[in-house]
From TrEMBL:
Single biological process term from Gene Ontology: tRNA wobble position uridine thiolation
Name the UniProt record assigns to this protein: tRNA 2-thiouridine synthesizing protein B
UniProt cross-references to NCBIfam families, sorted A to Z: sulf_tusB_dsrH (TIGR03011)
An annotated GO cellular component: sulfurtransferase complex
The organism's place on the tree of life at top rank: Bacteria
Record organism: Pseudomonas panipatensis
Pfam families: DsrH
Species lineage: Bacteria, Pseudomonadati, Pseudomonadota, Gammaproteobacteria, Pseudomonadales
């Protein structure tokens, strides 16, 4: 059963990203939104953690949040930027959606 994990908190504020990465299953995906997109900051430890994920774990980020934080221009190749309609459609591709509140 596949799960889309939604993260919106900064990876520098708490351990939610680390906990989420430990629980990702082989068919799971991860969507970063809000301050969680700071995990994609070039050279950061969270980005290194994300780059170590197996390629079968899809990575996504909300484009609006990337742009608001100045991270849209240097998006890693394996991360797909989504608008809000794309986010809604993405949720339908997974069996479950888990928000890390």
């Amino acid at each position: 059963m596949s799960t889309l994990h939604l993260l919106s908190h900064s990876p520098f504020a708490d351990g939610r990203l680390r906990s989420c990465l430990q629980l990702l299953g082989p068919d799971d995906g991860l969507l970063l939104s809000g301050d969680a997109v700071y995990a994609l900051a070039p050279g950061s430890a969270p980005l290194h953690q994300l780059e170590q994920l197996p390629t079968h774990n899809a990575l996504f980020a909300l484009d609006e949040d990337l742009r608001a934080r100045g991270l849209h221009a240097r998006l890693p190749a394996r991360v797909s930027a989504l608008d809000y309609p794309g986010f809604v459609e993405l949720c339908t591709r997974y069996d479950k959606v888990n928000a890390w509140l």
